[in-house]
Amino acid sequence: NTHYRIPQGFGNLLEGLTREILREQPDNIPAFAAAYFESLLEKREKTNFDPAEWGSKVEDRFYNNHAFEEQGPPEKSDPKQEESQIPGKEEEASVTILDSSEEDKEKEEVAAVKIQAAFRGHVAREEVKKMKTDSLQNEEKEE
């Protein structure tokens, strides 16, 4: 038995790929994997946020809590360095969360409009049905 060490962050990348393969269930898995990793590279280049690096730091923090010790308390660290590193990553994460919540809100609004329209249609049909029965009863009384 030989034990190999995998690079930090590689496990996270494979977990993400596996999750997407299970979600999408593509016919051609190698081509899907190539496209998946290519899209990850494009996202990393555009946003300067590497999910593999972030995942490895989170994993390292979970197991031995050494990855985040370099930041230190806000009073002692350089404010320019702190501003340039931390808010960018937080903004990217919050933008992703906001985008997904905006998409969810739009879907909810569309669903609400459909439900309201269906209910109004139901109420209108009931009123028409009631008006028809009332008019039929009035005609029977007149005869």
UniProtKB/TrEMBL annotation:
Region (Disordered): 64-109
Taxonomic classification: Eukaryota, Metazoa, Chordata, Craniata, Vertebrata
PANTHER family attached to this UniProt entry: NEUROMODULIN, SPERM SURFACE PROTEIN SP17
Free-text function comment from the UniProt entry: Sperm surface zona pellucida binding protein. Helps to bind spermatozoa to the zona pellucida with high affinity. Might function in binding zona pellucida and carbohydrates.
SMART domains xrefs: IQ, RIIa
Keywords: Membrane
Topology of the protein relative to the lipid bilayer: Peripheral membrane protein
CDD domains: DD_CABYR_SP17, IQCD
Top-level division of the source organism's lineage: Eukaryota
Pfam families referenced in this protein's UniProt entry, alphabetically: IQ, RIIa
Location of the RIIa domain: 8-45
Biological process annotations from GO: binding of sperm to zona pellucida
Protein name stated in the entry: Sperm surface protein Sp17
InterPro entries: cAMP_dep_PK_reg_su_I/II_a/b, DD_CABYR_SP17, IQ_motif_EF-hand-BS, Sp17
Organism of derivation: Macaca mulatta
